[in-house]
Amino acid sequence: MSSQLDLDHPLFQRISHWINLINFLILIITGWFIHSPYPGMSMNLMRNLHFIFMYLLIINGVVRFYYSFFGKHKDYDTFLLNTQDVKTTWPQIKYYLFIGKHPETGKYNPLQKMAYIALPIMSVLQALTGFVLYKGEQLAGVASYFGGLAAVRGFHYLLMWIFIAVISVHIYLVFTSAYEQFLFMFFGKTRKEKGV
Question: What's the predicted TM-score (pTM) here?
């Protein structure tokens, strides 16, 4: 018999989540070293790893997007904002600021939905700006529309910090208010199932 967590986070979705975790971690580390190299570091290695994991992130994103609409456990509708989300956005913010009660929400609250919608869009923008930086001479005309390569580099760097902020908040909230889901997401079992 399936538990509610089995239904909320089927194996495919959990695997996709693990892949994203690895991709984001490697992209942030390699991106940091590309932006601020140190003596003796292999820039070629950092760039190659950065591009490999960027492609893996995009492939995983496309597969996950397809699965959310056409997979066995399609869940696209759980990410769409609705009128209830409009009503609970401010109460949810107040709850996170420790000045209000937790509002009644669906599987995801409105702030989660906004983050989960924004992350794929930000990933596409990050890939595009990264490609413009990589092919700076060939795409100088494209870069000029955005203020030149320095502006594109600054935007790419800013997006990295937004990713770090979103991921940090996500991790904090998981450990403070959804620990059972963390256990299930990574180990397939909760404390009760483990007999803890």
Answer: 0.83
